[in-house]
Specification:
single chain, about 325 residues, mainly alpha, DNA polymerase, domain 1, hpI Integrase, Chain A, 3 domains
């Protein structure tokens, strides 16, 4: 664009004024890594090594970033380029636009640390204003659950059926369940061991009687260690989102995402009067603030407790008639 050309012209002029040699700079630029090469390094040296969600990074890189800038030099991507991409994605997917910018910010931070960029080079994501986000507040209601149950039963794959029920019974995260192996299931103790969780520590999931009964009926495949085997030999079930989309459409719950099943567990536990501390432990939350979203579901339970408390006060005080609480008003009527 004209604006980008002007920015690059200003940068060239500034380099000349600083005593730099444009010809020398062009030679160095010819040896510079492309953005696609930087992405490869980011995935291999950082994402796959340190992030459980590296596949999300890989998907965004291949879908959003490589097609746009793959052959460009690493230093040839400017804030205006990133801002335009963020705007384009955000027209339809504002949350995805934010995640893409955050990923790009991490990629360039690593580029600086690894020497792909000059020491004082600006991160092209600097100054990008992210779209406002609101925490999702969606879970399955009691009215929706029978329709969901009927929609689950309509699925042909027994492992898909088992997966959705287990998400509802346990509240575990999508990847945690898909990666679960029979070696980590102890039906006698009623326990599922998750060695690789988002919190970075092993988590032991207590299995309810319905979960135990369901797991005892899930067919096991010889040579496949996974609780939910996929079509490929010795591999787990993948792409559970597609069957969930079919299920939610049949159940007329089009806006319910797979992760909302986890929220359903937390919400239903809160509405049953369970403490936030207990819910946090069940869902393996690292921060108590994450669990606080369920606090409002406990309001009925709090009201019932205060109703009992108030009645106890009245009984102890010998006040069975509410008019006795404000006798002056009662006498004036």
């Amino acid at each position: 664009t004209l604006k980008q050309a002007r920015e690059r012209a200003k940068a060239l002029l500034a380099s000349v004024l600083d005593g730099q040699d444009p010809a020398q700079n062009r030679r160095l630029e010819s040896e510079e890594n492309t953005f696609s090469e930087l992405c490869d390094s980011y995935l291999e040296r950082h994402a796959k090594v340190h992030k459980r969600t590296w596949q999300d990074d890989e998907r965004r890189i291949n879908k959003r970033l490589r097609p746009r800038w793959g052959t460009q030099r690493v230093t040839a991507i400017y804030q205006t380029d990133v801002s335009l991409l963020h705007h384009e994605i955000g027209k339809q997917y504002p949350y995805e636009a934010n995640r893409t910018v955050e990923l790009l910010k991490s990629i360039y931070a690593k580029a600086m640390a690894w020497g792909y960029l000059p020491r004082l080079h600006d991160n092209p994501t600097a100054g990008i204003t992210l779209f406002k986000e609101e925490k999702r507040d969606r879970w399955l209601t009691g009215d929706e659950m029978p329709r969901v149950a009927e929609a689950i039963a309509a699925e042909a794959n027994v492992y898909v059926q088992a997966a959705i029920w287990l998400y509802l019974f346990t509240g575990v995260r999508k990847s945690e369940l898909l990666n679960a192996q029979w070696a980590d299931v102890d039906l006698d103790r009623g326990e599922l061991r998750l060695p690789d969780t988002k919190s970075g520590r092993t988590h032991y999931v207590s299995l309810s009687l319905p979960a135990i009964e369901l797991l005892s009926r899930v067919p096991r495949i010889a040579g496949n260690p996974y609780v939910l085997p996929g079509h490929k030999a010795a591999q787990h079930l993948v792409n559970i989102d597609k069957p969930w989309q079919r299920i939610r459409n049949r159940a007329a719950c089009d806006d319910v995402r797979l992760h909302d099943l986890r929220r359903t567990v937390g919400s239903w536990l809160a509405q049953s009067g369970n403490s936030l501390h207990l819910i946090g432990r069940i869902l393996n939350h690292q921060q108590s603030s994450t669990t606080e979203v369920y606090a409002r579901f406990g309001q009925n339970h709090l009201r019932e407790a205060l109703d009992r408390h108030g009645q106890q006060i009245l009984d102890t005080a010998g006040k069975s008639d509410f008019n006795d609480l404000l006798p002056q008003i009662s006498r004036s009527k």
